[in-house]
Structures are given as C-alpha cells and as structure tokens.
Amino acid sequence: MTNTTAPATAPAQGIQTPGMQPQGIGVPAPQTAPTAAPYPDIAVQAIDLVKDYGEGDNAVHALRHVNVAFERGKFTAIMGPSGSGKSTLMHALSGLDTVTSGHVLFGGQDITQFNDKELTLLRRTNIGFVFQSFNLLPMFTAEQNILMPLTLAGKKPDTQWLQTLTTQLGIADRLQHRPSELSGGQQQRVAIARAFIAHPRVVFADEPTGALDTISSAEVMGMLRRFVKEMGQTVIMVTHDAAAASYADRALVFADGRIVADVANPTEEGMTELVMRQRQQATAVLGNTAVAD
Ligand SMILES: Nc1ncnc2c1ncn2[C@@H]1O[C@H](COP(=O)(O)OP(=O)(O)OP(=O)(O)O)[C@@H](O)[C@H]1O
C-alpha cells in the first residue's frame, strides 16, 4: 500500500465567493491509499493531485495539488479559463491520463496504481463519456452506437434499459438511422444514451453543448439533469458555457491548475461573473509578466 501525503481532510478546495454558498464536502481523506470503498457517498476523489507537463524551467503545472471529492448522484460542472487545467483533471479522474503525483480514488480504489489493462476495464465498465464532437461511429446505426460499450465488453444488450433511455432522450424512433442522418442535437442524445447504457458509476462530459445551438443545448442539459435527479446518476462536466453549468448541482472554477471557487446551485449570471473575473485576473497576470520581461 502506498503512503500518501494527503491532508487529514480533503474538502472541496478554494476561495468561497461572497454571495455564493460554498459546498465543501469535507470528506476525511484516508492516510493511506485504500483499495476498498471507505466513503460510499463519494464517486471519485482527487487527493493532492499534481500534473506537470515537461520538466525544469519549461514545465507546465497543469494541476497544482488539487483536492476535491465528487459525490454520488450529483451533477458537477467544471469551468475556468482556457488552459486552467479542467481537461487535465477530467482525464486524470477517468484514468485517461497518468498524473505526476497524488491519487485518484474511483469508488475507493486508487486508480493511479492501475496498469493499462485495469484502466481499460475500469473505463469500459464504470465510466461513460460524452464529447463535444459526439464521437459516433459513422458506419453504424444509432442503436449500434448506443450498444457499442456492451458489444465491446461482450455483454448482451439490455433492451429494457435501451428503450427507457432512448424514450427519455426522444430518439426511440431514430434508432435505425446513421449519425449522418441525424441532427447535431439528436447525435448528442445518441452519445448520451451510449454513455449511460452500461450503468456506469460516473459519466464524464467534455463540452457536451459545444457544438449545439442554444435550444439543443438546453434540451441536452435538461436530459442530463433528469438522469442525475431521477436515476441517481453521477455526472462531471467540463464546460465554458455558464448556461450549461446552471443545470449542475455544483460548479467548480479552475484557474492556473487550482480550484479557486466551489459553488452550490450555480446560476448562469453568477458563473458568468465568476469566470469573467478569473479571465481578467489571468490576463492581468500575463500583462504584468510581459512588463516584467
Ligand atoms: N500534452 C500536453 N503537453 C504539454 N502541455 C500540455 C499538454 N496538455 C495540456 N497541456 C497544458 O496544460 C495546461 C492545462 O491544459 P488543459 O487542457 O487541462 O486546460 P483546459 O482548462 O482544459 O483548457 P481548454 O478550456 O482550452 O480546453 C495548459 O497550459 C496546457 O497548455
């Protein structure tokens, strides 16, 4: 078992912004990296997570000792300026990328200790992904795309769940169409059905509304929210869209590899203001650096 440098508690980190209610989970962090789920309410947790790209003077510090726990059955949005570390955190939490130091507990298991085979199995059975560009396979029908995670895992299709999901998403009559015959909003709904088909513990969504118009975005976000509220799913979403973030139970704001705000029940206006402030601060820092240079 590996010793961690985790603090005694791992609260949701960050500056609590006036007028916004903080939502620190305050989960006691384990003193050593555990192999069983000690905190059943936590779906995934980052402990003292560091990710550096490159070394020495050229190193980019993408994650700077991030501590955060994501509750089961909650919808969390991650916002922040470009380059602040949002995607890096999501890739670390979902086992898509390695970290420099620290731990990721997924269902209580330290996945930073997993080998490639274990990570592939984890992603196939416990994680669903939704991407900005849908990532559907063009030669397959909508139904075949949705069932792909089960097909790859050699599992039988759960026809009842397929029907429930596609009815809820309003695509039950589009299942025999190929992606090119569907609108962007419909393609994203197919991608969402695919993300949930294998009953994953966590669905990670990376800019799910980035390629959609305002109306399709609102529909897709409403559906994600329903899956969380009515079916107890856990969703973690990176977004630049404050309107999308307002569907979440909680929003984290990243800046320069750190969580700088942790907001419960975010509103579009509140998140727009917060992210704007972070962007201005980042620009001011860049300006000062240029002057100093
Ligand atoms: N493979 C890589 N090699 C070197 N640097 C990288 C790599 N991937 C990311 N970075 C750097 O790490 C930092 C964080 O990047 P990350 O993609 O996590 O930011 P982000 O907040 O998701 O940005 P965006 O909103 O633009 O997608 C950035 O400075 C980025 O340039």
From TrEMBL:
ABC transporter domain: residues covered: 44-281
Keyword check for Cytoplasm: no
PROSITE patterns in the cross-refs: ABC_TRANSPORTER_1, ABC_TRANSPORTER_2
Region (Disordered): 1-33
GO cellular component, one term: membrane protein complex
Entry keyword set: ATP-binding, Nucleotide-binding, Transport
Keyword Transport belongs to the record: yes
One Pfam short name: ABC_tran
Coiled coil ranges: none
Ranges of biased composition (kind: Low complexity): 1-12
A GO molecular-function annotation: ATP hydrolysis activity
CDD domains on file: ABC_MJ0796_LolCDE_FtsE (cd03255)
Family annotation (InterPro entries): AAA+_ATPase (IPR003593), ABC_transporter-like_ATP-bd (IPR003439), ABC_transporter-like_CS (IPR017871), ABC_transpr_LolD-like (IPR015854), MacB-like_ATP-bd (IPR017911), P-loop_NTPase (IPR027417)
Protein name as catalogued: ATP-binding protein of ABC transporter system
Species name: Pseudoscardovia suis
Lineage start: Bacteria, Bacillati, Actinomycetota, Actinomycetes, Bifidobacteriales
